[in-house]
Design brief:
Layout (H helix, E strand, L loop, with lengths): L1 H5 L5 H4 L5 H21 L8 H26 L5 E14 L2 E12 L11 E11 L2 H5 L8 E11 L33 E2 L2
Antiparallel strand pairs: 1-2, 2-3, 3-4, 4-5
């Protein structure tokens, strides 16, 4: 958990050289679309600067990203990844739990020093189950004890157009990638942390 608290997400401009060409084009289109919409709808400057908003969003999403990557790394020894940048999340209350769909970028830990390391896009589905009543009694009352459960954490391979941009939980968004796989083909449910 300490790593999640100390994680500081880089700004997008610093990551562009390590992105695939498809991710670079997707990012450029996203910026142009946001700028066009903002100019059309707003005549006054935004309340928060884009970087301030980005840091705030990244700080909220990062703990969920780290839970998902712990799950992925545990199942892929020797091919571990480290978080680079949270991209987006959708969340919904379902069956008395909060469920998250996440997209984020991660970089492989082990790579030869001479080869260029390409950042990969991931999709994850994470939800949080309240801990048992007996375990919660041993913790101070202000603490919220939850167990992260990762349903799936997978690399989104290119071309990105093969993935959906929405699902039952997520609103349609051209920048969000959701696997097309049916629910029963997801990776086994596990507890992390």
């Amino acid at each position: 958990m300490r790593a999640a608290m100390e994680f500081s997400s880089p700004v997008l401009e610093d990551l562009v050289p390590d992105l695939s060409r498809e991710e670079q084009l997707r990012l450029q289109k996203q910026f142009c679309d946001h700028e066009r919409i903002w100019k059309r709808n707003n005549k006054s400057p935004p309340l928060l600067s884009p970087r301030c908003w980005e840091r705030s969003r990244d700080a909220f999403i990062s703990p969920h990203v780290h839970n998902a990557l712990r799950h992925y790394n545990a199942r892929h020894p020797g091919a571990e990844f480290d978080a680079v940048k949270p991209l987006m999340q959708c969340r919904v209350g379902f069956r008395d739990q909060v469920w998250f769909h996440l997209n984020f970028w991660a970089r492989r830990r082990s790579s030869s020093s001479g080869s260029k390391v390409i950042i990969k896009r991931f999709f994850a589905e994470v939800h949080y189950k309240p801990a048992a009543a007996s375990a919660a009694a041993a913790v101070p009352p202000l603490s919220q004890v939850v167990i992260p459960i990762v349903e799936v954490c997978t690399i989104i391979e290119e071309p990105l157009s093969q993935y959906r941009s929405s699902c039952a939980f997520c609103p349609a968004d051209s920048t969000f990638c959701t696997p097309r796989a049916p629910r029963n083909s997801y990776v086994e449910t596990t507890r992390t942390g």
